[in-house]
Amino acid sequence: MTEFWKRFSKHRGAVAGLVILFLIVLLAVLAPFLFPKSPWAMVQRPFLPPFENATYFLGTDTMGRDLASGLAHGAYVSLLVGLVSTVVSLLIGIPIGALAGYFGGIVDDVLMRFTELFQSVPSFALAVVLVAIFQPSITSIVVAIAIVSWPPVARLLRGEVMSLKSRDFVDAAVLSGQRSFTIIWRQILPNTLSPIIVLASMMVAAAILVESALSFMGLGDANVMSWGYIIGAGRTVIRQAWWVSFFPGVAILLTVLALNLVGEGLNDALNPRLSRKGRQA
Amino acid sequence: MNTIGTGEKPVIHPGSLKRPEGEPIVRIEKLSIALPEGADRVFAVDRLSIDIHPGEIVCIVGESGSGKSMSANALMGLLPDLVTVAQGRILLGGENLLKLSANALYDIRGRRVAMIFQEPMTALNPLMKVSAQIEEVFEAHGLLTTRERRQRALDLLEEVGLPDPQRAARSYPFQLSGGQRQRVMIAMALALEPEVLIADEPTTALDVTTQAQILDLIRRLQRTHNMAVMFITHDFGVVAEIADQVTVMQHGQVVEQGTADEVLLSPGHSYTRKLIAAIPSGMANERPAKEKNATGPLLHVEKLSKTYFMGSGLFGKQRQVHAVKEVSFSLERGETLGIVGESGSGKSSVGRCLVRLQDPSGGHILLDGEDIATLKGEALRAMRRRIQMVFQDPYSSLNPREKVGRIIASGPIAFGEDNAAAYKEAERLLELVGLDARAAERYPHEFSGGQRQRIGIARALALKPEIIVADEAVSALDVSIQAQVLDLLEELKRTFNLSLVFITHDLRVAAKICDRVLVMQTGEAVEMGSARTIFENPQHTYTRNLIEAIPGRAKEARIAALASA
Amino acid sequence: MRRLLTIPFALALTVSAALADPVSGGKLDLIVQPEPPSVMIGITTNGPALLVGGNIYESLLRYDENLKPMPSLAKSWETSEDGLTYTFHLQEGVKWHDGKPMTSADVMFSVEDFLMKLQPRHRNLMSHVAKVVAPDDNTVVFTLKEPFEAFIRGFAFYTMPIVPKHIYEGTDYQTNPANEKLIGTGPYKFAEWKRGSYIKLVKNEDYYLPGKPYIDELYYHVIPDGASRAVAYETGQVSVLPGGSVENFDIPRLSKLANTCTTEKGWEYFAPLSWLWLNNRKPPMDNVKFRQAVMFALDREFAKDVLWNGYGKVSTGPISSKVPFYANVGPSYPHDPAKAKALLKEMGYDGKPLKLLPLPYGETWQRWAEAVKQNLADVGIPVEIESTDVAGWNQKTSQWDYDIAFTYLYQNGDPAIGVDRNYKSSQIAKGNPFNNVEGYSNPEVDKLFTEAAVAFPAAKRQELYDKVQAKLREDVPVAWLLELGFPTIYNCNVENPISTASGLPNSLRDAWIKK
Amino acid sequence: MTRFLAGRLVRAVFILLVITVSNFFLIHAAPGDPAAVMAGESGDADPQFLEQLRERFGLDKPLYVQLGIYVSHVVRLDLGYSYRQQLPVLDLILERLPATLLLSLSAFAVSLGLGILAGAMAAARQGRLSDTLISLFALIFYATPLFWLALMAVLLFSIELGWLPGFGYETVGAGYAGFARALDIAKHLVLPAMTLGLFFMAVYVRMTRASMLEVSQMDFVKTAKAKGLRPRVIQRRHVLRNALLPVVTLAGLQAGQLVGGAVLIETVFAWPGIGRLMFEALSQRDYNLLLGVFVVSAAMVLLFNLITDVLYRFVDPRIRVAS
């Protein structure tokens, strides 16, 4: 672990990323205490520019809602969407990739054709259609993001498992009488952890971007305040009130940046040799 | 780690001081190369001094981590990032290379000093044709026209003895064999007739017969071109075969220097002596033939075949590779059978079929009379504990995410043994293979290669097998460690009355520990007999070739004779 | 009172048009948003289709901003004393765009055959008609079953477009290739449609009014993003932004640009009125006190000022103030959260959360839904917004699968055409998002609306409509929001872009570009 | 090569067929149907009107019959009629396809070209200021929402500076022809292609840089150095070419994202491509059109995959010669 931290902290960007990420998580967690009022409450005149009013220092949006409050509450939602959808896509991608990689042959063929199917449909378009069809809500957004983002996980896992499978310690496990499930679970998956963690950190970032893009297309959940929603709502007034979409844009930028930096740091720290694989492959 | 345990002084034989007339072409003076902070020692190379004269082959010998390759890289000006020269001089024809500008160095590389590497598989650019890669040497130094370069490349390929130079020139590296690639590398190095050739373990990755050819080639070319050669190797056999002068290194420091004869025949330093003693003699000892079991052999293999189907898939054309063709042999209880062959001989496929990591395509494997070649499912699983395997690569054969105790215990646990008992047994086994019981709580990466191989052996023993298949079990180890592990295997075999199938490419290793030897060539068993018969009276041409190719055999015989005297 | 006030405006309009002499020539770039599926307005009657198609097809009449009929394809008309016979005299020398003459036969074909088959609205109108005859090439006579005063306002360009008989007769109207190569009588001819980019119309040189139209080419640009549409106007790539083509938040900024004119005119015939469907079938919306409480809870002034930038007008009841027979009678509902809370308490509302279905027509409507949600939350009605797209919205409203839903509808010139359909119990039918979707049923209202439609003369109708408006305002079957204002923003060099109660769609016949 | 292409073709057809069928069900699972949407837009409707529409579209038949009819048409390369626009779907798509192809191909070329160039530059100057700057910008572009970047680009280059048109495919009604028209389209193309390309460029910059650093550790690079080759030649001839292989693979895998990203960009820049067509078809429940767009865009992704595969074979002799 100390070794890990040593290598991680060598990556200055990663440390900066970690700090930013920590602050954002803190903001998300403390949002209900920092801004007890609903972020939807219309508290001031519309289009109040930032830094004019001490209470509403980031200004207000088209309807006089506190932007700072929206940003804080939005952090929670955006992170949650990113995190949950990543977990869901890992839950889809890992078993598929592991089974395909471990058993090979016809199993591999079938599972990979299936994966290809999802990669052949333009991913964002598929997400749009899924959300539109199941009607926009947090759940449908999370599911849609997960459905379009698991194939890289499966591909990564398949590759890792295939290379691990040819390692002698897996043969040794076979010889020692362990069953396939045990071998996948105990011998192979623990060794894929580092690349998965690295990929996952970048997937959270990508999911946050997709969520904001969906909101931009008017496919956000209208009941929750997310960064994507604020930009989507603010884009029509970008000329009059740049700050409405500027601040959440910066928030997304920082979060995604931080996640990627952390991902890179993890990559350097966890698999110095395996590093430099495709980011989103 | 930074000091030599014995504190013994280096031995400098007179032969290294009394040299041919004239100036050396290369003179390395008190060269120290510093490692980056946090490495396991301060200097990779510590106050190394070597002279190399034209027409001379100087071998630098040492085990891994001795700093021998680093010295070669320093001479080439190709030290890795973060590694720096701390002091000393490297003189090429009187000019200090360490003081030269980058541009001057580009001029020298390839033209005056050339280099060949260990891994011919990776040392050539996979995306460029062979000819282009040779022509590039001329281009780099702005010599000749395009046409002339092409012609020279062809000539060079012919000179290094490639059978069809025209074709080789048009080929991509992946279309050539390892030996052919190494020839291409040599052609490239010779292109500008350099004064100095650095050969960094150039034959280590090659089969023994190929190795003999490449050594011959280097020697021949060195003579015709009157080059100075700096030859890096870990193999005293190779040293005996090729060296004029020898420098032995340990932990970055010179421990012994002298002519080949001086160092090989009268090693003065204990480390050198240890290294030379660790070389398997290549002389098989007579062993009493194992008495035949009344109930027949423990293992009987009959017409075992393995065929691979390559390039499958929906549309690819299927290609068949017959890796093993109707091989038969038997193994008595307590016997060690060696399976010897070069790469591609099918020896490993035989081993993997025996333990059923692969399914044989044909034939029978009778274990105590039961055919295990076609077992499936639970029956196969139950059989597994009777035949275990020790793998070649000590780094990939242990799961880096499992503690050593768990690695050893997981077999018995998979067969239903109680966890606590299995762990206890694991600790006992660790002690048995010469490790501390506390090793069970540690992860594999905390151990050295030799220790890891011991862990691998303990794991194989955990299931109390009757047969152990050792697939190149010592090939990845340094020679001194190799000897220790071989001794351990021998001892355990006796203790547990194990039968051993020992798969190796190294005839000397086979000679040392095997009762009987099976020689394989391209999937077929060409000869089988007692180790002694095979070595002293080989019947098959291939076997004879193999034995003759063992480097330094002539000298070794003398060394062995001296050692035993 | 209202009529007196509006006359000077009408005068002003004519005067300004007369002041400078119109000049011919030039090209005009407009926005059409969203891209219509077709501009054959005999088949497709959505807003964007009308905006373009209204320049290609004409009806018998046009209407001024007080909904007074003006000549179009009919140069004059008479109504019999008993209100049963309408006689129209057609313009002479009218030619279709393919050069064939337009006659009463074409009108007969359109009215009796083409539109009957394709237009539900037309079928409704014709249910009042006993027969139609064409005594000669230039005359058409409608005979009604009973007096129907609203009839004269049913000849708008899109309620009764005249289509060429010689092209459509005997074919499948929906798939006739002429739907792509449009043939009308209008001032502009169809030239080119580059899907996803623009629709181009060119001047009809053979138009029956000499000298008109003035402009050579019309380009209707398709730009899907609201912000880009604003940019297009700013950079001068388009010079007319029809109502609703930019987001409301952009209007104040754009209208302040140099040489920019803004007008709210041209929507009098449509008279769009917005309201919340309150599903009367379900509790608590079945309770009149709850519905009244909703009215008191809504801050409609805020919506008008902030979301609609002050355009439009807070609605008082079921009939838009632009439509004939409007009256401000009955209870009124200012923003009064206290009163709303009191009413809720009185009825014993249990605080059950309700679903709110916004209108999926862009940002303003989304924001409005959020504001309404906040308004309702303030008086203790928890609301969850249900996002959906146009298809989902249609599905949910027309299948009555909602609690509260936004909508807005055109009133089409007369309460008997565009208002009573939303309140009469005979109009309760699934599968149609424009009828009595709220499920309000009151025999008294049914009777009043039915009588008012056929009462004669107009004064009689006014009396009945006053009564029904008062009654509805008391019952609050739906929560009326705003009479929507869709200002047209245009470069001041464009003269007289809006000359009728239907604005730009009907048509750019009289518009010209200042040199 | 022929065998390879034939194999790819058969696989592509299979994938397209499965996509067709699964999307057919997916789309029909959406609430509302085209008749309801069209009725809704007309502002007035009665049951007779809806019946007419449904019958005309064949929506009154059971779903499996509709599927059968659809698939039997698709295998004959007939994508059916758009309910709403009353035109063959194929015509509608073909009308829009050049725009999308132009956009995504140029974004692809820009991102790959510039990405590799910048990545190679960064790798060659590893640790220096220019490397840090390139890497930083790549990271920022990678983390910026596409649509946000698009809006900012329009704001800056189109509105503030007035250098480039902010939307559309060409200047409408300008009557350009030949070269003038090409130039006009090219001007319109700059902003959308750059915005779409920047994100992917960032990906390729990072990938190229990492890959080159990895390759420069390889033995054959040392061989090249030992030959006395200058660093510039080594970078270009030995390191870059080998480093490109994983980049090309990645580029192929990202084709799906690229075409998907085009939907977003087409909306902001009013680019008349199939991405917008899809979004419109979706909200209008124009089943045939939507399915058609899906099939065609999937075909485009497969095309991109094929291009990168061919590219890969071109770069890597091991695969080219082996087959």
TrEMBL record, chain A:
It is a multi-pass membrane protein. It comes from the Bacteria. The keyword Protein transport applies. Gene3D superfamilies: MetI-like. Keywords: Cell membrane, Membrane, Peptide transport, Protein transport, Transmembrane, Transmembrane helix, Transport. GO terms for biological process: peptide transport; protein transport; transmembrane transport. The keyword Transmembrane applies. It is found in: Cell membrane. GO terms for cellular component: plasma membrane. Its main location: membrane. CDD domains: TM_PBP2. The chain crosses the membrane at residues 12-35, 75-103, 124-150, 196-220, 241-262. Residues 75-263 form the ABC transmembrane type-1 domain. InterPro entries: BP-dependent_transpt_permease, MetI-like, MetI-like_sf, OppC_N. Belongs to the binding-protein-dependent transport system permease family. PANTHER family: D,D-DIPEPTIDE TRANSPORT SYSTEM PERMEASE PROTEIN DDPC-RELATED, OLIGOPEPTIDE TRANSPORT SYSTEM PERMEASE PROTEIN APPC. This is Peptide/nickel transport system permease protein.
UniProtKB/TrEMBL annotation, chain B:
Signal peptide: none annotated. Its main location: membrane. One of its GO terms (biological process) is transmembrane transport. GO terms for cellular component: plasma membrane. PROSITE patterns: ABC_TRANSPORTER_1, ABC_TRANSPORTER_2. It is a peripheral membrane protein. Residues 26-276, 299-547 form the ABC transporter domain. GO terms for molecular function: ATP binding; ATP hydrolysis activity. It is found in: Cell inner membrane. Keywords: ATP-binding, Nucleotide-binding, Transport. InterPro entries: AAA+_ATPase, ABC_transp_ATP-bind, ABC_transporter-like_ATP-bd, ABC_transporter-like_CS, Oligopep_ABC_C, P-loop_NTPase. Belongs to the ABC transporter superfamily. This is Peptide/nickel transport system ATP-binding protein. It comes from Breoghania corrubedonensis.
TrEMBL record, chain C:
GO terms for molecular function: peptide transmembrane transporter activity. This is Peptide/nickel transport system substrate-binding protein. It holds the Pfam family SBP_bac_5. Residues 1-20 form the signal peptide. GO terms for biological process: peptide transport. GO terms for cellular component: ATP-binding cassette (ABC) transporter complex; outer membrane-bounded periplasmic space. Residues 68-425 form the Solute-binding protein family domain.
From TrEMBL, chain D:
GO terms for biological process: transmembrane transport. It is a multi-pass membrane protein. It is found in: Cell membrane. Residues 97-312 form the ABC transmembrane type-1 domain. It comes from the Bacteria. The chain crosses the membrane at residues 12-30, 101-124, 136-159, 185-205, 243-269, 289-312. InterPro entries: BPD_transp_1_N, MetI-like, MetI-like_sf. GO terms for cellular component: plasma membrane. Its main location: membrane. It holds the Pfam family BPD_transp_1. Signal peptide: none annotated. Keywords: Cell membrane, Membrane, Transmembrane, Transmembrane helix, Transport. The keyword Cell membrane applies. Belongs to the binding-protein-dependent transport system permease family. This is Peptide/nickel transport system permease protein. It comes from Breoghania corrubedonensis.
